[in-house]
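Minutes, structural biology subgroup

Action item carried over from last meeting: produce the structure token record for Spermidine export protein MdtI (Dyella acidiphila). EB confirmed the sequence was re-checked against the source entry. Recorded below for completeness.
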Amino acid sequence: MPEFAPIHLLYLALAIVLEIAANVLMKFSAGFTRKLPAMTAIVCALAAFTALSYAIEGIQLSVAYGIWGGVGLIATAILGITLFGERLRPSGWLGLALILGGVVLLKFS
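Output recorded by EB:
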């Protein structure tokens, strides 16, 4: 299992948080009709990619991107359920579980 420098893990965590914020803010922007959440979402998305670019300096691209995308997707889905009352069918929960399993496998690859 490859070791990651703490700074690269910090950049990866920051990229994940910023991606989640961008996704939630896009929902709050109501199709980019509300300017402040829309502009903040764009800034968060750009900052997330910037943080990810620093993370992949010390973490393999496949591992960093897989974790970034998977954790971001799972957290965004959970926030959609809790903040916006969205619902998932059992197949959606299975999909999230498979994504989580994939992220774990990537970490140990």
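Discussion: The helical segments are 6-28, 35-55, 61-84, 90-107.
Next step: EB to file the record with the rest of the batch.
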